[in-house]
Amino acid sequence: MELILALAIGVLGGSGVWLLMRPRTFQLIIGLSLLSYAVNLFIFSMGRFPVGKPPILEPGMRGDPAVFADPLPQSLVLTAIVIGFATTALFLVVMLAARGLTGGDHVDGQAGRDR
User: Which UniProt keywords apply (predicted)?
Assistant: First the structure.
């Protein structure tokens, strides 16, 4: 399980960085999204993966922190997902406005470079 998770984080992070280096704005936005997904998975994996363990205390039980899931990484990832969605929406609006003003979607303004 840990190997699959590490590979997923590596693939998402590598793909995100590769897309950040592309000259078009849409690819840049997708790269930022993939990179944020990789970071979210990494933060979520830091909270351990207890399988079959209860997430909260049951009535009458003593609390042993080693038995229960850590809620802090889960709350951090949830907050990061909400903030990432808002910034992606802002980036898309700015991208559409810039494309309308300049007539192209290149980051550096050189439209004929890919042809």
Answer: Cell membrane, Membrane, Transmembrane, Transmembrane helix
Mean predicted lDDT score pLDDT of the chain: 83
DSSP characters for 75-106?
HHHHHHHHHHHHHHHHHHHHHHHHHHHHS--B
- 26-37 pLDDT, tens per residue? 898 999 999 999
- Give the number of domains in the chain: 1
Identify whether 44 is part of a domain: yes
CB-based burial, 32-51: b 16+ in 10 Å, e otherwise:
bbbbbbbbbbbebbebeeee
49, 68 Cβ separation under 8 angstroms = no
Report the alpha-carbon angle 77-41-71, nearest 5.
Answer: 40
* Entry pTM: 0.73
pLDDT of 82-107, one tens digit each? 999 999 999 899 888 888 888 888 87
CATH number at residue 23: 1.10.287
